[in-house]
Amino acid sequence: MAEIRPMRAEEIPFGLELCRIAGWNQLVADWERLLALDPEGVFIAEEQGTPCGTASAVRYGTRLSWIGMVLVHPDFRRRGIGSALMAHCIQYLQQHGVESIKLDATDQGRPVYLKLGFRDERPCYRMTGARPDGLPSHPEVRPIAPGDWPKIAEMDRAAFDADRLPLLRILHGEGPSAVIERGGELQAYGFARLGFNASYLGPLVSRNPDDARAVAETLLAALPAGSVYWDILPDNAASLALVDSYGFQVIRQLTRMVLGASTGSDGVAQIYGAASFELG
């Protein structure tokens, strides 16, 4: 039986190896971010001292949490290791009193999660396309300033229904970020970063489609030429229309699932880009 324990920073290369085998987009920074958010919430499974799997459980206070990075090395599959990692994450989060546990499930994983008590919440799409050229400039968009964080925290809590300010601060240090403020009120903000297969745009939160477009185009223009991933919740039809307008195509369709209290439904209309499948 596999032993499951917290991952150490020096074991990130094993996590990266699993990402490369799976074809995922994570870099060293993604694993470092998870460990920074919760050093006790990133797990590694071992069999007789040999690493064989990983999982992460990110807590946004006690309101909401997210399970991700459930990966098992091909040499150790079909031994129940993935299910054991999931059970460990759930137990860890419940021990910390988290009200709602969420994840973004593939079609293959969904039946397993249903058996664990998760319920379908809404679809989640990964869109991809080439970074557009010749994007217009938007003078009203500016970089995030220190004084913006209280307003970002308030707006993000309303949209995401949990406090993910520590995550947003980390993302701010990893790549381009942008904000629109009008009449003293925050209208939109967003972040982007690099990835192994493609750059990534998100999270992106906006009160309206026009400001979402302005922030998105500013972020896209700051990324290197090449492919971009952009994860959206198609329940917000305006976000799907925005991403579609750049010729992006759906390459993965996942199901957002929840165990425990349902959260966040009231804020979906402001979500124009998710943070990632492992972060929500």
Structure description:
- The protein has 280 residues and is an alpha+beta fold.
- Helices cover 30% and strands 33% of the residues.
- It has eight helices and twelve strands.
- It has helices at residues 12-22, 28-37, 81-95, 110-115, 149-160, 165-172, 209-222, 237-244, and strands spanning 3-6, 42-47, 50-60, 64-72, 100-105, 119-130, 177-182, 185-193, 199-206, 227-232, 249-260, 271-273.
- Strand 8 (185-193) and strand 9 (199-206) form a beta hairpin.
- The radius of gyration is 18 Å and the shape is globular.
- The model has no long low-confidence stretch (mean pLDDT 97).
Total beta strands: 12
Largest sheet: 12 strands, mixed
Q: Any idea what the CATH architecture of the largest domain is?
A: 3-Layer(aba) Sandwich
Return the CATH topology of the largest domain. Aminopeptidase
**Which secondary-structure class do the elements indicate?**
alpha+beta
Helicity range of the residues?
25-40%
Shape: globular
How are helices and strands ordered from N to C? EHHEEEHEHEHHEEEHEHEE
Task: Using the CA coordinates, give the radius of gyration.
Answer: 18 Å
